[in-house]
Every structure is written in structure tokens, then in C-alpha cells.
Amino acid sequence: MTAPKYKPYLGGQGGVHIGLKPIDKKRWLEIDDKFLTEINLKKDLLNTQREKVLQSTSTSEESQIEMLGEILSYLKEFHNDKYEINKDHVFIKATNEKYELSQSNLLPIELASLLIQEDLVLMIPKDDDFFLEAASLSSPSHWSLVDKFSKSLMTIHNEVPDYKDKIGHRVDQVFKRLPTDKILERSNWSIYDSPILFQPKQSKSDVKIKNKSAKDLFLRVERQTIKKLPQSQAVLFTIRVHVDPIASIIDDDYLLESLGLAISRLSPEMKNYKAIDQFEDEVLEWIQSKR
Q: For residue 76, what are the contacts with CB-CB under 8 A and spacing of at least 6?
């Protein structure tokens, strides 16, 4: 079994921290062997649960157009073997689909989301703050786009333990000061009882873990990037979710030790927020038995 690509719990990390680091532009967006599966999921959700996965305000349209342009430029520069892009249309070779650009009936953020695997969240600057005014979200990790839509950066994270007191203001400053030629990346981790990507919840308190057997749980990692758009100064927040069986780290003592430490070091509030308190003992016993 292949080990997880991202391991943000290494060294026992797992509490509230920013963890942003700059990355090379070519690493901004990911295209891998799950492309067809994840694009098809987006299409299905847009058709069947559109309001839950796509939201936008009319005032965000210019920022959406700019964001689409940035993504198209990136794909043309770094993935021209997978796409054909000109001023009129974009053709995806893997799906054999062509989308018109000049006469598209799709929202720009919707079109952008159908080209790449990442979810897209557009934070618009207003009144010295940033507000969620457009998003395509097919892999929510126990949160609701409908509930968070049009809210400020701080309000969006109001359920996160210690966010307001420890890192909220620093995150605000990162958004305000981020140079437009920089892309920042971070990852976070959780443990879920299902590999399904689309897991919306109105509140983290609604999460009830049904299967608590450690061998049947899954490591869920969000790889997030932020990029400021040069013209509108909006911040594009991308999210790509990676899910692996917890058993994928069974043969690596360092990963097992790191995950055990990361769980143990979480505050009681964070364990509750992540729903880890519902199966903590089972997982720690399982980790100990495998080392």
C-alpha cells in the first residue's frame, strides 16, 4: 500500500498553527491519476446539489474572470500537454471536452473548477477584511459552503479552537500583505470514518463517527494554497483533499509515532473539533500494537 503523499502530522504536529510556506509556481495546482474521478464528482454535484457546491455574488464576477485567466495561464505554461488553450476555448484532452471561453454560459469559477481537481474559494477584500464571495467546493471537510458564504475570514473560522486568539489576526495580515507573485501552501490533517470527498456539515458538532475501528479509518489531508490576484487584490484559496486508509502508514514506525504524538498533543477542544475524541483510545491502541 502506498504511503500518503502529504504528512502534516510529522513530528507530532496537529494543533492550531499557520504553517504557510512559499512554493514554486509550477507546484501550484495538482494533476494526477485521480483527475477523471474528481472532475466527474464535481460534475455530478453541480448537477444534483448545485447550491451546496457553488455560490457566488454578482460583485465577485470581475475577480472570478481574473482568477480564471490566472488558472488558464498556469495550465498553458505548465500543462500544455494536457490542455489546448486559446482565446476562444479550452480543450481537456483527458475528458475530450471543450469549453467555450468567449461565450460560456458557466460562471467563471464554475468553469475554472471543471478544469482542475482543486476546490476554489475566492476571498474578496472589503472594509479592511476578506469575505467569501465565490466558491466551488466539492470536497468540504465537515463544513457548509451555504453556511459560510459571504462571511469574513475570521467568522468562517469561528468554530476553530484558539483560531481567533492565536492565529486569526496573523492570517488576516498574511492575506493583506501577500505579494501577487507569491504562492503559499499549507496542509492540515484529520481522521475520518469514510473516504468520501463530499462531506458537508452545518457544524463540526454534527459529526458522529459511526465506525470507530482504527483499521477502517482514513487519514484526510487538505493541501491548501493561497494566491493574491494582482488586479482585484482578491485572494484565491485552493483546497485539494487527499484521503488514504490509516493502514497506509502501518509499515512506517516514524509515521505511526508521529500520528500518535499528533493526536496526543491536541488540546481537548481540538480533539472535540476534529471528532478524534470519539475514537482516540482505539487509534492510539492500534498504533501502539503496530510498532
A: 83, 85
pTM, two decimal places: 0.95
- In the structure grid, which three cell numbers stand for residue 155, read together? 467568522
Total count of residues recorded for the chain? 291
What is the identity of the amino acid at 217? L
Confidence of residue 271 (pLDDT cuts 50, 70, 90): very high
Residue 204 has pLDDT above 80, yes or no: no
| 3-class state of residue 213 by DSSP | coil
Residue 140 burial (CB count, 10 A): 20
Q: Please check whether residue 281 is in contact with residue 264, taking contact to mean a CB–CB distance below 8 angstroms.
A: no
Written in H, E and C, the secondary structure of the chain is CCCCCCCCCHHHCCCCCCCCEECCHHHCCCCCCCHHHHHHHHHHHHHHCHHHHEEECHHHHHHHHHHHHHHHHHHHHHCCCCEEECCCEEEECCCCEEEECCCCCCCHHHHHHCCCCCEEEEEEEECCEEEEEEEECCCCECCCHHHHCCCEHHHHCCCCCCHHHHHHHHHHHHHHHCCCCCEEEEEEEEEECCCCCCECCCCHHHCCCCCCCHHHCEEEEEEEEEEECCCCCCEEEEEEEEEEEHHHHCCCHHHHHHHHHHHHHCCHHHHHHCCHHHCHHHHHHHHHHHC
User: Which residues partner with 83 through β-bridges?
Assistant: 92
Task: List all residues 6 or more positions away from 239 whose beta carbon is below 8 Å from its beta carbon.
Answer: 118, 119, 121, 137, 139, 222, 223, 224
